[in-house]
Amino acid sequence: MTKKEKQRLHRELQTYVRKGIPLLLNGRQTTAKRIEKACQIAEAGEYMRDYIQDEQGRLQGLSFDFIGGADCQLYTK
After folding, report:
1. What's the CA angle centered on 33, arms 60 and 51, to 5 degrees?
2. 34 burial class (0-12, 13-18, 19+ CB within 10 angstroms)?
3. pTM
4. What was the pLDDT predicted at 57?
5. Which pLDDT value is given to residue 72?
């Protein structure tokens, strides 16, 4: 992840935090900082974004889920 990509992700996540949009990492509510860190260290795969919307199409949450090959594992605490 380049410095520019890190900055872009940071700005984007802070926008959602200010709007009160819940952030999830692998199905669990988390902080912007944890998502940034996870995206930086994901060596054996990457994170897929899922924009969670209500019935009217309004953003209700943003989920980052780890994806990778069959041998990829993610250890979270």
Report:
1. 25
2. middle
3. 0.76
4. 95
5. 40
CA distances from 60 to 14, 17, 24, 44 (A): 15, 12, 11, 29
Q: Which residues of the chain have pLDDT under 70?
A: 43, 69-77
Residue 10: CB atoms within 10 A of its CB come to 14
- Domain ranges (residues) in the chain: 3-68
Residues 60, 11: Cα–Cα separation, whole Å:
18
For residue 48, list its beta bridge partners.
65
How confident is the model at residue 50, as a pLDDT? 95
